[in-house]
Design a protein that fits this description.
Layout (H helix, E strand, L loop, with lengths): L1 H41 L10 H6 L3 H23 L6 H23 L10 H27 L4 H20 L8 H25 L5
Length: 212
Amino acid sequence: MHATLTAPSARRTRDRATLVCGIAGLASCMIVIMADFTTATIYERLGLFADTISAMAAGRGAMIMDTALLILVGGIVAIAFGLWRQRLPGWRWRAVIIALLAVAGIIAAIALFNEYGDGDVNDSWTFHYRLVYALGIIFTAVPLLAAHDLKPIDRRLWLGSYALGAAWFVAGPLMFTVPTGWDGLLERVAAGIMLLWLIGASIFLIRQPDGR
């Protein structure tokens, strides 16, 4: 009898934690999007095409963008924790969680180091771009590995995750080949792909407590 009475309460606790993780992830994505547009409007004017996110974070909008990126880091950690709570079997799901935590660590390093080759710190340009390269490689695995375990749950999630993974795989390398006047736009396309996956993962977690 005791086990019967306590089981529903424990279930509600687990669901509430998953819901909070999803809300935190979704909110962090919205905040970083608003921060980018706010910085472009207030400080950089119409710099969304020509100015990369890194350039804005190194300029007058550093406080806004760095804060938003750190909030995003917290949101990614929350998403990883929420996905971990789903307890899906297999090594791919665990790899997705580890990769998300690595992505969070890289973004935190980019925001906290706050150097973009402006000469303040020796070799800072190389350090920054090494982080960007690592981010590109590691995040590629996230949607592709997650898609495998999402297929039995919802075919739309499976297809969406694969599509975003393929789009990221194509858009990432292109960022380093486009003219300077357009690199900001392509970087935002790539960032948008990542945010779309994170938003999808957040909504997935938000809906879990309802069993849908």
